[in-house]
Structures are given as structure tokens and as C-alpha cells.
Write a structure and sequence with these properties.
3 helices; mainly alpha
């Protein structure tokens, strides 16, 4: 893990109670040099989990759009409106 995982941001202290096996594993990772500190390792793990949760929320929003008939109608209308312009641009490009 690179030390750039924790950027120069404001930090606040907190207390975390971890199962002993996780703490031992974290210490091994730090001792191996894969992370500089426990703090870096925990922050990187939290960032990954938060990123995954946010990505799943976005995916769920898009899944809702796939089942939304009104959205689908609008998307098709936009595609149809742009189709002629795309074809003209393609033809112009082919002339060159």
C-alpha cells in the first residue's frame, strides 16, 4: 500500500475496537511493509468499502432507469433526434 492512500486532509481521532485476529493480521501487514501504519490500513479499507457502497447505489439507480418506461421513451426520442446528425457527420468524414 502506498502512503498516498491517506492524503493531506483533516483528520480526527476515534477509537475502534477490533477483533484480536484482525488486529494481529493488520500488524503483520504493517510489519511486512505493505502498509505504513494501522491507521493507513484501516483508512484504505474504509475507503474501499465506501467506494463499493457508492458504486452499488449508482448501479441501483441505473437499474431503476432500465425499468422506467418514461425514461426509455425519452432516451429513444433523443437517439432518434441525433441519428440524422450522426449520419451527416459520418458522411462528411467519409468524404475527407
Amino acid at each position: 500500500m502506498a502512503s498516498t492512500l491517506i492524503k493531506n486532509t483533516t483528520r480526527r481521532a476515534t477509537t475502534v475496537y477490533l477483533p484480536e485476529d484482525l488486529l494481529i493480521a493488520a500488524d503483520r501487514i504493517v510489519q511486512s511493509g505493505m502498509a505504513h501504519t494501522r491507521n493507513e490500513l484501516i483508512a484504505a479499507g474504509l475507503r474501499d468499502i465506501i467506494r463499493q457502497i457508492n458504486r452499488e447505489a449508482i448501479d441501483n439507480d441505473f437499474a431503476g432507469m432500465a425499468a422506467d418506461a418514461r425514461y426509455q421513451e425519452e432516451a429513444i426520442a433523443i437517439c432518434n433526434e441525433l441519428a440524422a446528425a450522426k449520419w451527416e457527420a459520418f458522411q462528411e468524414r467519409e468524404k475527407q
